[in-house]
Design a protein that fits this description.
The chain folds into two domains: about 55 residues, no CATH class; about 290 residues, no CATH class. About 25% of the residues lie in helices and about 25% in strands. The strands form three sheets. Strands 1, 2, 3, 4, 5, 7 and 8 form a seven-stranded mixed β-sheet that branches. Strands 9-10-11-12-6-13 form a six-stranded antiparallel β-sheet. A three-stranded antiparallel β-sheet has the order 14-15-16, with no helix packed on it. It is α+β, with helices and mostly antiparallel strands.
Length: about 375
């Protein structure tokens, strides 16, 4: 738009037949035709030298706007909400509880063992950071270095203790907010964008699953990000001391090369989304225009939403398992299950009779147990004044 505005400005000046030093009142009155202005590359209209010299000094064009008086009303930083509760929040587990809880310790061991088995980093590449740093400086190459740390949470802590959906989950993640280059500068990333499916898309998926002969199911990708390879700048990581292999204790600052798109890396989300989407395209899914991470399978009439590692699919019951099997050939997913608990919210199925007397079916969204846990926490927690 800026270039087009400049071109229009040039055209107006040429049409008037004047330069910066001339105006209609100052014209000599000669009837001679003005000399043809010289053409300027990239402009549809020829312009004179005076106008051409002004291009760099011209301000950006004023674009048309529509004033919205409401936009100037003060925005409350902490708005009053009808539901003043945080939803879909996992309960954090501190180090003291993790060290004394067998289930939490088992989750920790499972996570570290799994990442090593997957080859998330290359243990054989272990080397002193000073060696990598000096080599990068000498060859003028960019390398990144960061650290991997772990944390534990309890998912669905609001559910009953014997509910299988309530479980400890440990994650080993890359500290993406503290990454340096060989010259100790703050690292700059590609910031690959990823866009999970929206809540609106999820509810439309629920509607599609309620159509005659249709059903809805969900499945989780197993450690989604680490199914994708980390690309771009070579990245080295420091592991916690309790994860060092024998012989590393003789080293001063051992680092290993990061191979997979580990959680926490600023570009991991984009790598996983592209890896996932590439496979979905191979098995016949197509993107739904303007609805990111939403896919349609024209042959099997299946609608799929992907929210990071959570898959929700609806469509004809007869095609459901067939499509899940196709997805599982390129992505590691857990066995699919009927739609129930999804993103921390229960999707309860119901049947009723409509106003016209015909049977109807639907989904209700239930977070009653979570609200009850909030109230229990409120009344059992010590008062700040105590």
């Amino acid at each position: 738009m800026f270039f087009q505005s400049q071109a229009a400005y040039c055209h107006t000046r040429v049409k008037l037949g004047m330069t910066e030093q001339e105006s209609p009142d100052e014209s000599s009155g000669s009837e001679e035709e003005p000399a043809a202005p010289a053409p300027v590359a990239g402009c549809d209209h020829p312009v004179d030298m005076a106008v051409r010299g002004e291009w760099e000094d011209l301000p950006a064009p004023a674009m048309p706007v529509i004033l919205h008086p409401d936009a100037f009303i003060h925005r409350e930083k902490i708005p009053v909400s009808e539901y003043p509760f945080h939803c879909a929040v996992a309960r954090p587990v501190d180090k003291r509880e993790m060290a004394s809880n067998p289930k939490a310790m088992a989750a920790q061991k499972k996570e570290w063992d799994r990442l090593r088995a997957l080859g998330a980093w290359d243990d054989k590449s272990v080397v002193e950071w000073s060696v990598v740093k000096n080599r990068a400086i000498k060859t003028d190459e960019t390398v990144h270095v960061g650290r991997i740390f772990g944390f534990c949470v309890e998912k669905n802590a609001e559910l009953a203790a014997d509910n299988p959906a309530r479980k400890f989950k440990y994650r080993s993640v890359f500290e993406g907010n503290h990454v340096r280059t060989a010259t100790a500068e703050q690292a700059v990333f590609q910031e690959l964008s990823s866009s999970p499916a929206t809540t609106e898309a999820s509810k439309f998926n629920d509607f599609h699953g309620l159509l005659p002969d249709n059903d809805s199911q969900v499945a989780d990708a197993v450690q989604a990000y680490t199914q994708a390879t980390l690309k771009g700048t070579e990245t080295w990581v420091r592991l916690p001391r309790d994860q060092w292999l024998p012989g590393w204790d003789k080293m001063k600052d051992p680092v290993v090369r990061l191979v997979l798109a580990l959680y926490g890396h600023p570009d991991s989300g984009g790598h996983w989304e592209r890896h996932c989407e590439d496979h979905l395209h191979k098995i016949g899914f197509v993107n739904i225009s303007n609805w990111r991470s939403c896919y349609w399978h024209p042959r099997y009439k299946m609608l799929l939403n992907v929210y990071v590692e959570d898959f929700k699919m609806s469509g004809p019951k007869k095609n459901m398992q067939k499509v899940w099997d196709e997805i599982g050939k390129g992505l590691e997913i857990e066995p699919p299950a009927p739609l129930g608990l999804y993103l921390g919210c229960k999707h309860d199925y119901f049947e009723a009779t409509g106003a016209d007397g015909n049977p109807v079916k639907g989904r209700s969204y239930n977070q009653e147990e979570f609200l009850q846990s909030c109230i229990c926490l409120l009344y059992t927690s010590p008062s700040p004044r105590d």
